[in-house]
Amino acid sequence: MGISIGHLLILLVILMLIFGPSRLEGIGSSLGKAVRGFKDAIDGIDEAKASAQAKTEVVNSSREQA
Questions:
Q1: Which partner from 42, 47, 49, 57 sits 20 to 30 angstroms from 3, CA to CA?
Q2: Count of CB atoms within 10 A of residue 59's CB?
């Protein structure tokens, strides 16, 4: 029981009546920036983990050689 296309269209019409098209554009833009920022933060965490893991592997391999 998900949301169908018809429900989304009705919701969009109601939102346009309440906020107006110019305000919806601003809300959409802000929401897009927030999602993009969240994705960038997640990517940054993944890169930090990969970097930390690479450093750990370098330290471990240097210890094994010693």
A1: 42
A2: 10
CA dist 44 and 10 (Å) reads: 38
With a cut of 80, say whether residue 61 has pLDDT above it. no
**9-48: burial string, b at 16+ Cβ within 10 Å, e else:** eeeeeeeeeeeeeeeeeeeeeeeeeeeeeeeeeeeeeeee
Integer Cα distance of 25 and 19 in angstroms? 10
In contact, 15 and 8? CB cutoff 8 Å: no
Residue spans per domain, the chain: 21-65
* pTM for this prediction: 0.50
What is the pLDDT at residue 36? 92
Region 7-12: mean pLDDT is: 92
